[in-house]
Structure formats: structure tokens, C-alpha cells
Amino acid sequence: MIQESHIQDQLQRILSSKPFAQSARMSRFLRFTVERAVCGQPDQLKEYVIGVEVFDRKASYDPRVDPIVRVEARRLRSKLKIYYETEGLSDELIIEFPKGTYAPLFRGRGAAPEPLPAAVAGPGGGIAVLPFSNLSSEPDTEYFSDGLTEELIHGLTKVGGLMVVAWSSAARLKGQPYDVRDIGRQLSVSTVLVGSVRSSGDRLRVMAQLIDTASGQYLWSETYDRQMADLFAIQEEISRAIVKTLRIKLMDRPGAPVIRREEYNLEAYNLYLKGRFHWNKRTADGLNRGLHYFEQAIAVDPGFAPGYAGLADAYSLLADYGLVNPGDIMPAAETAARKALELDPTLAEAHTSLASIRVSYFWEWAEAEEHYRRAIDLSPGYATARHWLAVDHLAMLGRLDEAMAEIEIAQQLDPLSPIIREGKGFLFMLSGRYPEAIEEYRQMLELDCFFYKAFTSMGRAYTQMGMYDEAITMLQKGRSLSGEIPNILGALGQTYALASRPADARRLLDELSELAKRRHVPSNCRALIHLGLGERERALDWLEIGCQNREGPMVALKVHPAYDDLRGEPRFQALLRRIGLAGPSATAA
Predict the structure, then answer these.
(1) Which residues pair with 210 in a beta bridge?
(2) Which domain holds residue 85?
(3) CA–CA gap between residue 375 and residue 309 (Å, rounded)
């Protein structure tokens, strides 16, 4: 029998090691579980208890929707493995967590573990709503079938106890032949909802089928022949049928609507769906066309909250992608987001939009985090809120451990999203874990071999590793796919300079100057090239201009390794103070 004092000594030894001393949340997880087990309470180590006691979730926490404990348990096992392969290589006492349990086991090195009652991990499963087929005779009504699918997904994410795959992952399966069993394995879901939409004049036919992915059996099927004005009632009836069929107990009062039926103006709603259809393309043309439709929706119905949220999102991405000067558009984005929340304070998308705006342009970090947290409370399955909270907020503050936990939850909710995988690779790069970052980017290419960010992100990681030839190859490939995006030219120019190719670096400086005559060029693009050339004062000049203009890339100054050579400069430290990023960074995961 292993003595309690020996277990406590081993626990302190592990907590003092490098993998755990740098991660407060992981240390708290390990201490809590070991101490409960030692006190003879391993049966209390349930997913809900750990979520509330260790990860500060509220009493309404639902492990089926928020997988934080499962995500962190995998990371805990990984950190223990690293410890016992390095600092703990000669330790006699082993603490381990078998898969499927949150109760630790203790054993001497080479001996069998002493069993304790195990706590079974929370239930898995979930649902994917696949893009509804458009059976209408008019091809330009495809926006409507996509919009119905996306709205069903958004509504179902608010259901307590239901894990819903995000729209961007579901959309990647659009128009492809599929086997529901393969989709179940690919997306880690137990059910899929499929359907079709046919509209003719003011008549609407919607067919929906709920299928079990393990057996392929139909669990529920229904056809709705209605007036177009009944669309919102159809959405509510479909969601209710799903909840009833899957026997999900709602977190709020019994009988509460799953999808709240809104009395939206149907014309405004149709324009909004068209806007989201184009906005989801994430191209310059798509964003501008989306903006146009959102403006039309608001003109038809000035009280239409989703229209203002869409408007805010379109403005924000136009600035984020460097397509417009942020000063020309971000105040309008904030106004639109606040108007959406004035009309509907429960709109998670609007809270997320406002949070992003308050960080990227106004640098109001505390207020932004409140809006992100509120969005997640309102819609725990909204992957975008967790993605942006991780990459654009927590990571920029240096809270990389928390950021990684959020991005992994986002990835579970949206497993086929290349942009979320790119965000995870970005966090690895900020943590100095470059091989892991590159592996994430390689997996991005498996999802979409034409996604330019996979190549450019890999190029940036290679630059930080000093592998300049590989970096240049990747950045050039990304440039060939994306066109003249200023941020890519800046990264390529810095890499040329570091690779002792100053003429090529200065050529890109000239290209950026010419490009700036036609469109907005973020100041950090030229700052990075000057930094690569060793011209620190010129780099700081450009960063100060970027700060004065409140450009989005400025929020990365604290943590991005590309700026490491400037950290000792008083002018650089003054920039961090101005942006609200002064003080020590939280330690990486």
C-alpha cells in the first residue's frame, strides 16, 4: 500500500517541475484530482464537479456542450508523460490517469497500479446539421437553403445538453456524396439531420430527417408544406422534434422553445440570409456583397437585430483583412453591434462582434472579455466566440494556456474548419512550439489544399525556426494563391532580409509603397521588413504609425516572436503601454 505522504511528496515534485510550474490551470487540475483520490473520494471526480471546481464553470455547466474537462484531461495526460520522460525519469512513484476516468492511479515504477473507483467521462455524441439541398427551380435561391441550415444550427447550439457541429464544418460537406456512418466518425457525432427545401412563390416545402450515424436508421422524418411566412414556426418544430427524439432535457424551464420564434419581417430575413451567404465566402467581393444585403435588410426593417450584427461582422472583417482603413469603418462597426444588442441583448453573435471590435480597435480588453464570456453563456456551442476569444484576446494578453483550452473546444465544435486549425497552429507558434505549429498547418492542407493561410502560416513558423529557404517557398506559394495581400508581402520581405537577400526585401518595400497608393496597407508590414534589415528605428516609426491609426495587427506586439528584437527598446515598451499590453505575459501551456 502506497503511503499518503509519499503521494503528497510526489505531487509537490510534479507541481514544481517545468511542465506544471508554467501552467496554473493544469496544476490546479492535478492537485484537485489527486487530493480527492487520496481522501477516499475518487467517486466524486465527475466531469461536472471538475468543471465547476477547477475550471470555474457556473452551476448551469453542461459537459455535453462544453468539453473543457475532456480537453484538459488529454493535456494533463500529455504533460505527465513529458514529466516522466524528462525530470521525473528516475521517480519511483508514478501518478497516471487512465483514459475514461478522471481519478488518478498510483503505482511504483514497473508495478501495476493500485486501483481506485473510476469516474466515467461524460457522454459523447452530438449532432451535425448537413446543408439542406436546394430543390427550387431558381438556382439563385441557394442562399435560402443554406440560411435555413445555418439558422437551425445556431438555434440548436442554445439547447442545453446538445453538442452541435458548427456551420463551417457542415458546409464543407455540401454537395458531396456521403455515408452517414463516415460522417459520424469524421465529425464525432451520433446523429445527423439532413433535408431539402423547395420554394415556389409564397409556398414552401421543407423535408427533414434525423438519422443515427451508428446504424444508419431513421430516427425521425417529417415534411412541411407551408406558406413562406411559416418559416420560423418550421424551424421551431424541427428543433423540438430533435430534442424530443434524442430525449434531451432542456436546461431551462420545461416547454421553453428550443429556437425562439421571432416575429421577423420576412423580406428583411431573406436579405439577411443572402448577406450571410456571401459573407461566409470570406472574399473581398463576398464581404462587400454581404454588406450590401445587410444594409438592405436594415432599410426594410430598422428593428431587425441580426441585420445589424451582420453589418458589424462585415465591417470588422473588411478592416481585419486590410481591405479598408480601420479608422474609416470600425466606429461604424461598433455602432452596428451596439444597435443589435440594444434590439436583442441575447444575440450571441452580436456580443462576439462587439468583443472583437472593442479589442482590435479600441483596446478595451476587460470589456471585450465580458462580451465574449456573455456570448458563450448564451450559446455554448458557438465556435466563433471561443475561436476569437482564444486567438484574438487571450493569446494577445499572453494567456496562452487559457487560449489553447478555448481553441481546442472550438475545434471540437467545428472539426473541419481550416481557420480554427490555423488558430491552433498560431498558438503553438506563439508558444515557441514550432514543429507542432507546422504539423497543424500540414493538417490544414489536408482539409483544403488551396487555402493560402496554410502556406503563409507555415512560412512564418519556418522563419522563426531560421529555415529561411523553406519559409520563402511557403510564403511565395501562399502569395500565388491569395494575390497581393500586404501582410504576406511584409512576412516575405522580412524573411528575405533575414536570409541575407536585402535587395529582394527592399523590392517588396517598394511594392508595398505602390500598393498603398491604391488601398490600405497595415503599417506593421513595412515595420517587419525594416526589422529584418536591422533598421530598428524605421521599424519603430512604422509601428508608431500603426498604433496611431489603431490598426488591428498592433494587438499582437506583446506576444508575436517576429518582434522579439524590439522588446528591449523603450519606444516599443511605450507602444505596449498605450495598447494596454504592458506587464508580464502569462506563461504558455
Answers:
(1) 193, 220
(2) 4-108
(3) 13
